[in-house]
Amino acid sequence: MLVGSISCGASSAHDGDPGVGAAQSCDHLASAPWDPDAPDAQRTVNFRDLRAGAAIAACQAAIAEAPRLRRFHFQLGRAYDRQGANQDAFEAYRRAAELGSGAAKVNIGILYQQGRRFEKSDAKARAWFRDAAETGIPEGMYCYAVALDNGIGGSPDAAAARTWYVKAAARGTTKARDALVRLELDGAGTGTRCD
């Protein structure tokens, strides 16, 4: 999925190429460590360290220059999310998800699960996590497994949770390996979290 610095494929002429300054600023200020669309895994930002104001401005500028690049919409969503502007975060994530971002689907699921300054719906959270998992993103696989494991948005399903934890672990998600151990020892309802 990662193609140079443009993760959702080459942009068409009507999308415009992002200016180096706007694109690099948005990426530097708001790329998630677990997002496969992040152009440089060494230059990502943990959510707690994200400077929302600067990231919002940079990502809005990047989107203005390249509106079809999903990573910019996702990163804008993260910045709004960090700021606590959850409705704005949802809109940015939704646009990124429409463009194919599995990371955005994960974060939409988290918005629904947490319900802070946003609609609380475990059923919607589980559905978004499932959609993210099916895109092949390890974080989505993990979050869907957590929902299945803990009965978030539906009945617990230890066998299905195990399947998704295994898939996430196979793609390097350490917390999925830890959850598998707990699931094997204690059965469903491990209390593992996706946030």
UniProtKB/TrEMBL annotation:
Task: Kindly give the InterPro entries that the UniProt entry links to this protein.
Answer: F-box_motif, Sel1-like, TPR-like_helical_dom_sf
Tell me the superkingdom of the source: Bacteria
**What's the protein called, per UniProt?**
Sel1 repeat family protein
**Gene3D superfamilies with a match to the protein in the record:** Tetratricopeptide repeat domain (1.25.40.10)
TM helices/strands, residue ranges = none
